[in-house]
Specification:
The complex is a heterodimer of chains A (111) and B (113). By secondary structure, chain A is an all-beta fold. Helices cover 0% and strands 52% of the residues of chain A. In chain A, a hairpin with a 6-residue loop joins strand 9 and strand 10 (101-102). In chain B, strand 6 (56-59) and strand 7 (62-67) form a beta hairpin. Classes of the chains: A mainly beta (111), B mainly beta (113). At the A-B interface, strand 5 and strand 10 of A face strand 4, strand 5 and strand 9 of B.
């Protein structure tokens, strides 16, 4: 049972480049989420999805794009990476929208 | 209260001592209060989900209480051990923002031998 996985686990990219972070879950959970870890803020929601083809903005969506063509995948794209997007990104999924299960995280560094 | 707030931001505990800390959350449209345990370089792990006023949950030496009318929850660690060192996050779920957990900034607990 793979659960929820993220790839890559570590990524270094340059300012201005496009980068996509992948999230895959095997539970067929309806809800999926992207968070970033920010000092002093804990976890902040970037985007979430209640089902395939349904996405909505969270607290900090600027500079990010998501899609959800399949229930099990929820990729997050940084269209033109900036240094302020250096962070650890966590994907999570939930069956009902209540209890959430987190992936292992992707550490992204933008130089 | 408009946001989820946790206090203190950090605390240091001697091994064997007990401790507790607070999560305050908006009481309007309340549905559930979540506690997560987050170790450094790992992902947050669910501890408790509480929904009813007066709820008490326990897992080993860790327990939590919930007061939905006044909008606060306490997390207690009894007889702290070094492996309890982590950041403890609480998150509120409301009926008017379904699926969007609102997280506090966390309480970092350091247990020293």
């Amino acid at each position: 049972d793979a659960g929820i996985t993220q790839s890559p686990r570590y990524k270094i990219t340059e300012t201005g480049r496009q980068v996509t972070l992948m999230c895959h879950q095997t539970w067929s959970h309806s809800y999926m989420f992207w968070y970033r870890q920010d000092l002093g803020h804990g976890l902040r929601l970037i985007y979430y999805s209640a089902a395939a083809d349904i996405t909505d903005k969270g607290e900090v969506p600027d500079g990010y794009v998501v899609s959800r063509s399949k229930t099990e995948n929820f990729p997050l794209t940084l269209e033109s990476a900036t240094r302020s997007q250096t962070s650890v990104y966590f994907c999570a999924s939930s069956k009902t929208g209540n209890e959430q299960y987190f992936g292992p995280g992707t550490r992204l560094t933008v130089t | 209260i408009l946001n989820v707030e946790q206090s203190p931001q950090s605390l240091h505990v001697q091994e064997g001592d007990s401790t507790n800390f607070t999560c305050s959350f908006p009481s309007s449209n309340f549905y559930a209060l979540h506690w997560y345990r987050w170790e450094t370089a790992k992902s947050p792990e669910a501890l408790f989900v509480m929904t009813l006023n007066g709820d008490e949950k326990k897992k080993g030496r860790i327990s939590a209480t919930l007061n939905t009318k006044e909008g606060y929850s306490y997390l207690y660690i009894k007889g702290s051990q070094p492996e309890d060192s982590a950041t403890y996050l609480c998150a509120s779920l409301t009926t008017d923002s379904w699926g969007k957990l609102q997280f506090g900034a966390g309480t970092q607990v350091v247990v020293t031998p």
